[in-house]
C-alpha cells in the first residue's frame, strides 16, 4: 500500500522517490523491486472474476447480493469463496438490493368483530366538528 502511494506520487512527479521512501521508512530498492514485479496470478484471476461479476450483475436484473452472485459463479464452475466475491463486488462498487422487512401491524383476535359503520359511509358534514372518522 505504501509502495502504491509512492508510485502514484512518483508518476505525478510531486516528490523524488528517494525522499518519499526515506520519509515513509521503506527502502528505495524495495520500491523499485515492487514496481518491476509482474502482476501476480491472483491479481490476474481477480481481474477475470471482476469482469465476470460485472456481466452477471447486469444480466441478473434483481441486483444480486454476494450469496446469489457466489451461487451463480459456482453454477458456472468458478470455485471461489464468498469473502472473495464480497471483496470483488465492493471493489467494483456493486451492491445487492436490500428489501425492507415487512412488519405486520394489525393482528386480529380469535373472533374479530367488525366495527360498526356509525355514519353510514356519508362523509359530508353540515358544520365543522360534526362528524369525525378515522382509519387504523
Summarize the structure in words.
The protein is mainly alpha-helical. Among the domains are: 35 residues; 52 residues. It has 6 helices and no strands. Helix 1 packs antiparallel against helix 2, helix 4 crosses helix 6 and helix 5 packs across helix 6. The longest helix is centred in the middle third of the chain and has 19 residues. The chain is elongated.
Gap between N and C termini: 58 Å
Round the mean pLDDT to the nearest integer and report it.
88
Overall geometry comes to: elongated
Q: Point out poorly predicted stretches.
A: none
Instruction: Please compute the radius of gyration using only Cα atoms.
Output: 31 Å
Q: What can be said about the biggest beta sheet?
A: none
Structural class: mainly alpha
Strand-residue fraction?
Answer: under 5%
Report the count of strand segments.
0
Query: Helical percent range?
Result: 40-55%
SSE string, helix = H, strand = E?
HHHHHH
Helical region count? 6
Layout of secondary structure:
Blueprint: H1 2-11, H2 17-24, H3 28-36, H4 41-59, H5 66-75, H6 82-92
Helix pairs in contact: 1-2, 4-6, 5-6
Amino acid at each position: 500500500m505504501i509502495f502504491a502511494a509512492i508510485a502514484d506520487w512518483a508518476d505525478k512527479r510531486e516528490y523524488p522517490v528517494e525522499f518519499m521512501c526515506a520519509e515513509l521508512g521503506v527502502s528505495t530498492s524495495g520500491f523499485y523491486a515492487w514496481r518491476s514485479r509482474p502482476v501476480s496470478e491472483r491479481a490476474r484471476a481477480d481481474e477475470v472474476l471482476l469482469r465476470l461479476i460485472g456481466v452477471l450483475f447486469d444480466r441478473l436484473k434483481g441486483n444480486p447480493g454476494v450469496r446469489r452472485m457466489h451461487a451463480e459463479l459456482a453454477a458456472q464452475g468458478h470455485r471461489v469463496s464468498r469473502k472473495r466475491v464480497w471483496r470483488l463486488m465492493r471493489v467494483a462498487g456493486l451492491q445487492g438490493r436490500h428489501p425492507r422487512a415487512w412488519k405486520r401491524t394489525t393482528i386480529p383476535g380469535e373472533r374479530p368483530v367488525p366495527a360498526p359503520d356509525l355514519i353510514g359511509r356519508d362523509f359530508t358534514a353540515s358544520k365543522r366538528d360534526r362528524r369525525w372518522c378515522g382509519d387504523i
